[in-house]
Amino acid sequence: MSAKDWIDKDFYAVLGVDKSASADEVKKAYRKLARESHPDHNPDDPRAEERFKAASEAYNVLSDDKRRREYDEMRSLFGSGAFRRNARGGGQPGGVPFDVSDLFGGGGGGGGRFGGNVSDLFGSIFSGGGAGGPGRARGPVKGRDVEAEVALDFTDAVHGVTLPLTLRAPGVCDTCHGNGAKPGTTPVTCPHCQGSGTTTRNQGSFSFAEPCRNCQGVGTVVEEKCPECRGTGGVTKTRTLNVRFPAGVADGQRIRLAGRGEPGERGGPAGDLYVHVKVRPDELFGRSGDDLTLTVPITYPEAVLGTDLRVPTLDGTVTLRVPPGTPAGRVLRARGKGVVRRDGQAGDLLVTLDVVVPSRLSDEARQALETFAEHTPPAAREHLDARVRRFN
């Protein structure tokens, strides 16, 4: 990317966030755009790939604190009119603004009084954050990170599971092994930059170093392109990875697999793979942190008289004692029957009791219930009746 392109592009607008957006807001906006515009989801929309590339480009800058700070400072510097020239060429304040494109177009005299200082100022930004300058080739570049989403069954998330994950992502071309040249040939030194990967443009009093446009900053050019990748050195590949999801992985958790993302450029390390976990809900169990939750119905006689209640767990059944006079909503605890923590300890199973009121009764049951009501002491309603009398 040239210096002019960098200044002209508003990465905040690309992601749809404010300049004051936090790192989490930037990440959330990028993930949303990446999902919506990913080429795999829009095979017939050529503009989707452009939107995907633009979002990735913006995220690569705004997700890095150092590069984002330099990007903000540079746009603020040019946007505030800090670089002005006098209409009469006297170099005094009060000159008229000029288009930034003047700085990066063709033409030019000597380096002037600023020489290479200005290009040194912005060199780390235009070279992707490195220390490159005039006469210094761009070094290895780390590959981009890859994101994927996996849905797990509730039981697998609690106990842990290893699953195959199939990805379609850029990879190194097997025909040319990533150099982009036709088999039997090799890339040659770029004649424009003499292999440095950078060129210097002079405009008036300014001198700027930028990646060579002929070789895209690589330092070499491919004369006979590889028929498989057409000179890019990379192709879209389908690969399958076995991903281990640890016991107790939670819904919304992100797992990082270092070095399993896109391959790097010019011998750089591969990016990382981030797997976002979605846990399918279970028909019986819920989850609260490391504890499992379960609602169990009991009858009114069981609540009044007490009972031994057998309840399911993810590993079998346990028996819990329901004491006499248990009210609806009471929570019983089965210790150690929850999610296993990283330290080897396990959470609990929390059982909420739901007293079921029958909608229909047999004649015998109704008669028994009426007899029970006749023998029920009224003390249970004395407090409520006292409050009612206060408002009468």
UniProtKB/TrEMBL annotation:
Cofactor comment text: Binds 2 Zn(2+) ions per monomer.
Q: Which residues are in the CR-type domain?
A: 160-238
Its needed co-factors are: Zn(2+)
Question: What residue spans do the CXXCXGXG motif repeats cover?
Answer: 173-180, 190-197, 212-219, 226-233
CR-type Zn finger ranges: 160-238
| MF-aspect GO terms | oxidoreductase activity
Chain sites annotated for binding Zn(2+) 2:
C190, C193, C212, C215
Q: Where does Zn(2+) 1 bind?
A: C173, C176, C226, C229
Q: Which UniProt keywords apply?
A: Chaperone, Cytoplasm, DNA replication, Metal-binding, Oxidoreductase, Repeat, Stress response, Zinc, Zinc-finger
- Annotated compartments: Cytoplasm
Q: Which residues form the J domain?
A: 10-75
Kindly give the Gene3D superfamilies that the UniProt entry links to this protein: DnaJ domain, Heat shock protein DnaJ, cysteine-rich domain, Urease metallochaperone UreE, N-terminal domain
Q: Which InterPro entries match?
A: DnaJ (IPR012724), DnaJ_C (IPR002939), DnaJ_domain (IPR001623), DnaJ_domain_CS (IPR018253), HSP40/DnaJ_pept-bd (IPR008971), HSP_DnaJ_Cys-rich_dom (IPR001305), HSP_DnaJ_Cys-rich_dom_sf (IPR036410), J_dom_sf (IPR036869)
| Oligomer status and interactors | Homodimer.
This chain's function reads: Participates actively in the response to hyperosmotic and heat shock by preventing the aggregation of stress-denatured proteins and by disaggregating proteins, also in an autonomous, DnaK-independent fashion. Unfolded proteins bind initially to DnaJ; upon interaction with the DnaJ-bound protein, DnaK hydrolyzes its bound ATP, resulting in the formation of a stable complex. GrpE releases ADP from DnaK; ATP binding to DnaK triggers the release of the substrate protein, thus completing the reaction cycle.
According to the UniProt entry, the note on domains is:
The J domain is necessary and sufficient to stimulate DnaK ATPase activity. Zinc center 1 plays an important role in the autonomous, DnaK-independent chaperone activity of DnaJ. Zinc center 2 is essential for interaction with DnaK and for DnaJ activity.
Which family does the similarity line name? Answer: Belongs to the DnaJ family.
Q: What is this protein called?
A: Chaperone protein DnaJ
Q: What is the lineage of its organism?
A: Bacteria, Bacillati, Actinomycetota, Actinomycetes, Micromonosporales
